[in-house]
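Listing S7. Sequence submitted for prediction.
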Amino acid sequence: MYFEELKNCIDCKEITMHYRELLLFLFKKLEHERSVNAVFHLLKGKKSAQTLQDAYLFQIENFYGIDRKLKKTTFNNHVKDLIENHYIQVANDQALLTEQGDQYLSGKRLQSYYQMKGHKYHQIDREFKQGLFLLIQTVSMLIHEENKFIPIVDQSYIQAKVRELLRDYSMQFDTIAEQLYGELHTVLSTIDDCLATVLLKQCSGYDRVGMSEQQIADEENVYKEDLHLQSIAAIHNILETITEHPEQYSLLTRLIWKKTNRLTASAQETFDLYQAGHTLDEIASLRQLKVSTIQDHFVEIATHKKNFNIYSFISEQVLDQIQEAIQNTSTRKLKPIKERLHEEIDYFHIRLAIANMNDEKE
């Protein structure tokens, strides 16, 4: 009953996000700067210093890790499709938009893609989605007194989380169902109808089997990856709302998993040595790594850690000069910024300054 009421509240006209558009947008952002594979690593959420830094450097952090199951063959097929449709050319392993590609992209409303917030939620979005689907299925079955059913989620740790939640509510299934419906109705009303529709079509419950992303894609005659963008955008919208207003979503908030450390293991080791009082050069010597590698680590640390003192490496005056150059060039690309600065200000200083601009730190 509850599910059908939710479903009837939604009216979606068409799928609004397409993988082709997103790839073109990302290739445009990285044009002349990075390889084709840099986009693949970004979407997969590769936990390397280069990929993490590029995400913030080119202001595409929203798309970091939004497709962690993306296969290289699938990605290559999309790239091939863009080439065959004359939207891009690939030279020296870099994707360059053609005039036709630029025209195609300029006619698209790309702002909707920023509903995805991979930099914030890529570590927890999949588990939250699976927990939500399992809770909906479980509550739906139990209020119809169906105690034996095959759970749609296999992972034992997600099943355990849902069982714990039910126990905390003293197994009052009608109460849980009413609260779950209320919170879902409220949060889904805050997001685009098409995003909500894609999410609800995947839900299973009493006398209902949810559709897979592939099945919905076939029904809508679009790529499965297009559906994934819709689905992940819906989850990120929901996560954004309930984390901002946890008091209004006490049930859904219980499905959020604790984030793990954003730093790579190597950067964390460098950070530990730094906190122990070692200098950059000392850390490079202790770890037997190049100074440039340790610099990469500090840029990563500056991107993610609130308690990192950037002024250990850069003066306030130099930081102001770099920020002014960034404003004057309207870019975060290193070379045009460097050309506006004194010679003694190096690329490490610029990268630190850009990293320091990230306002979503741990």
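Caption to Listing S7: primary sequence and predicted structure tokens for the chain studied. The chain has 20 helices and two strands. The CA atoms of residues 123 and 259 lie 6 Å apart.
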